[in-house]
Amino acid sequence: MGLTSIDWIIMAVYSVFVLGIGVALKRYMKTSTDFFLAGRSIPAWVCGLAFISANLGAQEVIGMGASGAKYGIATSHFYWIGAIPAMVFVGIFMMPFYYGSRARSVPEYLRLRFDEKTRGLNAISFATMTVFSSGISVYAMAKLMQTLHIFDAPLRSMGLPLSAGFHISIIISAIVVLVYILLGGLVSAIYNEVLQFFLIVAGFLPLVLLGLKDVGGWSGIKQQLPTAYTHSWRGMSNPHTNLLGVEWFGLVMGLGFVSSFGYWCTDFLVVQRAMAAESMSAARRTPLIAAFPKMVFPFLVVLPGLIAVSLPAQRPGLLPSAHGIGAMQGETAAAGRGLIPPKINETTGLPMLDTNGKPLLDYDLAVPDMLVHYLPTGLLGLGITALLASFMSGMAGNVTAFNTVWTYDIYQAYIHKGATDQHYLWVGRMATVFGIALSVAAAYAATRFNNIMDFLQLVFAFVNAPLFATFLLGMFWKRTTGHAAFGGLLSGTVAAAVHHGLTLPVGAVTGIKGGWLATVHTYPSEMAQNFWTAIWAWSVCMVVTIVVSLVTQPRKEEELVGLVYSLTMRTSEGNLPWYQRPEALGVAVLVLALILNIIFW
Amino acid sequence: MGLDIRLPIGLLFSVIGLLLVAFGAFSDREIYQRSLGLNVNLAWGVVLLVFGAIMLILGKRPSAIRPDAGSFAGDAGRTEGER
Questions:
Q1: Do B5 and A191 touch (CB under 8 A)?
Q2: Does the residue A368 lie in any domain?
Q3: Number of folded domains in chain A?
Q4: Using CB atoms, which residue from B3, B44, B80 is nearest to A24?
């Protein structure tokens, strides 16, 4: 890997700053509102950058690069239609209720709008989910540090076994995150997310620029790769003519509508960042400001993957191997593609083959290999710092969302009502320790029982899929009742599970991939199956919620003021200059996103 | 919140920028084979240093009065939840 002192110094400087921010913020943490909601005092641009960084964990950076290498520029759909419209919607239409209702969390909004059981369902599933996501993120980081052999040299010099690197990565990152959240609460998390945003840009921009120069720019990539890689929409009419294996309707409805609105509009992890804003107008601008960098992020995170597959198959010997199989590089390079090496079976050390006998490619190494390929020591340290920063802030984001939901929506609601604010502040700090300990435990569970993690992620997907239908009806139809919301969520989740149990992606084995009830339909790809699972869950939740609402007693209208669109005064932003008005920003964002889609059609 | 985020960002990037510039100025040309023969440490170090300096200047400047700020001020310490 070839890290030298300069790389270590950069990583150390970053760690000192992260902890320093926590120390500097400690004196401002006086009440639970300071700790959980950053005192509702953060300027819009800071919340905006934290809003996207909270989502840009390193798994995303690695994963989007991997998808870029596998699916080409169509991966940008996860940004251009899978995020932008939802971000505009949450800013313009939903933030007035989240921020205006003064709910302190998304589950609390559900409690105000519907009832206790709907809040409980959402709070408990969300809290469980954040702990496991954080654990999976920690696991992925430790694994990557091991793959990149980051700690090998120092471990060798200390005479410790190389496997200790895995534990060291977990322990160090857990301690750093624990300390800065304990000290500065949500403000610490938000500030570090902003720091991470700039670090990702600083670490990845030189990588992309060097890569583009090497392959001859976008036109060079176009020459090297089949056209399917460089067009995002062409071929979307049929799942067999594009690399994603989905058709446009499944893509637009499943990803662009159900999944994306479900995530960006209802996930407390991101919504919490906007709730911390200093004013209603700042809260509404948060997702809109976030949308601008979000739109161009594919150039930072997807393009490295495309560059990695555009390069000629590796010149053996020249490439400092990121995966430490230098000896095998010569023979296996032919089986790899560009910078992407074949997947190696950890026990036999041989390349893994698919059912047709072709070697499987380890796309997750696209980004790490690019870093090692182009960045000399110095910038390499910065690139790795950027990855570390995104792992840690991914963990911190989950932990801050967890401690808030735990304290306000579980502890205060069901365990100990009516205690002093100082008591809840203390509980929040304890929840932070507990949440991080659980994440670490989940990370270790992931090393032993990989299937359990896959299974849990699947269950979370089922729970999340119908959420947006509930919020949409709750915010825009005053007739929606609590029983209906609860019933809709449950039946939507069941529908997702049943749909998954009845379908299978082509070529997959019955089990975790689906078909465990019976296989009545085969999808052309796993992605198509996921999108349709979401569409089914959402539709069932929508229908059940409407039907149950019509037969149950609605709440009195005066109780719903500030919670439902038709009963809430429009916020007037007439005193703001036009470029600060959410509507103007929203239109600008959508026009730019449209232009990008046309350019990369 | 009392600490302007631009100060730590400015400081961090200035320090990293300086480190990269200094390292780039004295480093062996050999290591830039990977980066197409360009001394990217020096060049990118300068970019980060400039960015850091701008952030520091912006953070030090007395902040302009925002027309919309503070409409929910005085929120701190509010603990409702039992409505």
A1: yes
A2: yes
A3: 2
A4: B3
